[in-house]
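Translate sequence into structure tokens.
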Amino acid sequence: MGGMQGREQNSQAKLIRMGTDLPYAGLSAAQKLDIYLPAEGDGPFPVIVSIHGGAFMFGDKADEQVLPMLEGLKRGYAVVSINYRLSGEAKFPALVQDVKAAIRWVRANAGQWAMDPGRICAWGGSAGGYLAAMAGVSDGVTGLDDLSLGNAEESSCVQAVVDWFGPTDFLKMDEQIAAAGLPANPQQAHNGEHSPESLLLGAVITSIPGKVMTANPETYINANAAPFLIQHGTADDIVPCLQSVYFAQKLTAVLGPGQVNLDLLDSAKHADPRFGAAENLERVFSFLDGILK
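Result follows.
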């Protein structure tokens, strides 16, 4: 999932207006974003904030994970693909603070890039889905924001979320994988010392349940949360689909069924190609068009 490969693929998308490696904050070299604008139209365009996955440890804003989001260019969306501090550099909540800072930067600079600051979607897969979900539910939570990163006068709220197979309740993942009858790999146990979640939080997650709660998106569900489209594969043995099932149920209980959409892709695995297939992208953009257009 190297950045160079992603940039080569992206160059084939006939992008005309593009800004790369723009800093949205100055604390870390990771705090940069790329902007892609539709080849036609003057805007202001609704915005897709693309958030890459990678177990909180790797991934890049220009790798192949951005390709589904770039389909939005053909449909009149601007795409802003962001990097954020990974767990090897900074622990939670730094990555959430970075996402919020990037969204504030988008609002502050929307005018010069023909973007609409009132129509922003957060969209990501896996760890990126987690961050999109956090952006959708935690607006105004001071412990998850760092206004010193810039544009403190702007809001970090989003108007829609597309969450692809993101974790939402860290301590339940191992038992949910077992409950689904999926093969367990002790080397990949989420409750283990070297799991992505433990590395993100700085300790074995079973030893810090209180801190884990502060990192779970479901903790922050409130009546002002954004509308959600959540999609998950039923054969996902990395992030079990019950994470999304229960998250959607809890969102629906607060927001109402019209604001929460859950799609379970039968037999699809983690990061399955079916998520980025044309048929599924039609579903995603139908959801986004209904909210942002």
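Note: Confidence is low (pLDDT under 50) at residues 1-13.
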